[in-house]
Amino acid sequence: xxxxxxxxxxxxxxxxxxxxxxxxxxxxxxxxxxxxxxxxxxxxxxxxxxxxxxxxxxxxxxxxxxxxxxxxxxxxxxxxxxxxxxxxxxxxxxxxxxxxxxxxxxxxxxxxxxxxxxxxxxxxxxxxxxxxxxxxxxxxxxxxxxxxxxxxxxxxxxxxxxxxxxxxxxxxxxxxxxxxxxxxxxxxxxxxxxxxxxxxxxxxxxxxxxxxxxxxxxxxxxxxxxxxxxxxxxxxxxxxxxxxxxxxxxxxxxxxxxxxxxxxxxxxxxxxxxxxxxxxxxxxxxxxxxxxxxxxxxxxxxxxxxxxxxxxxxxxxxx
Length: 319
Prior knowledge:
- By secondary structure, the chain is mainly alpha-helical.
- The chain has two domains: 3-99, no CATH class; 112-288, Intergrase catalytic core (hpI Integrase, Chain A, Orthogonal Bundle).
- The chain is 55% helix and 3% strand.
- It contains 13 helices and three strands.
- It has helices spanning 3-22, 37-47, 55-80, 89-99, 112-123, 131-150, 154-159, 189-202, 230-244, 252-265, 270-277, 282-288, 293-304, and strands spanning 165-166, 171-174, 183-186.
- It has a three-stranded antiparallel beta sheet.
- α11 (270-277) crosses α12 (282-288).
């Protein structure tokens, strides 16, 4: 389990005893054998929003699912180590499923044309005479192209070292991925050229340079320093949006959604998209990658012919 997941579960398990005391009138530190399935189910009822329509309600639903998962795993731990063998985790799962509404998170609202505008803006950034500013320009170009072509999470990008990236094959090995899993991502020749230009301008040389961060937090030739921070990447993307005249909100994660959408539009198999994005379950992939309504309409009419409003005369060439 990743440090972030551990932190999330710890917070959830701190909420549970407080709920026992505040809402159920139970000692916040009851004996283990006093816990019942109903205690966890009452906790879940308070977490689940009444409706799931607004973005805030969707966010609450996701939080409820994560929080309850921590409690459910805690119950499973008690059973597996015979600390409370009379608890029924199966009964808890079935009853919890009945409480949780059928919920599929809405697909991300992705506008690939906006992402392409940002990329094109980065491509056109003029060379700088100042070495520090030129290094920064090259870093921005390499970083944005890498996000655009690989769809890596921002945390994965920030954890990359030079030795994780192979310019010979156009691949990068993600070792510090979500859930502790590793995977290989691919990029194109333009991205490879941008990476090479950035590293050369940074002054990387020698055997030890492989351990340097792929993207540095500082922009000083000959001083790779520490890896770039996620917040720095987020601020950079936000600034580039303004410079490119993109009003639609774009984050580093938007590039991940954009790649997934583009792969689906190009008929890449779902299992391949899942592997590229590093999803543990295909269910997650189906949420992330989706055909837009326009895509669906175009494909439908490609099979059955263009739609004509009733009463409209057929023109020559419509066949």
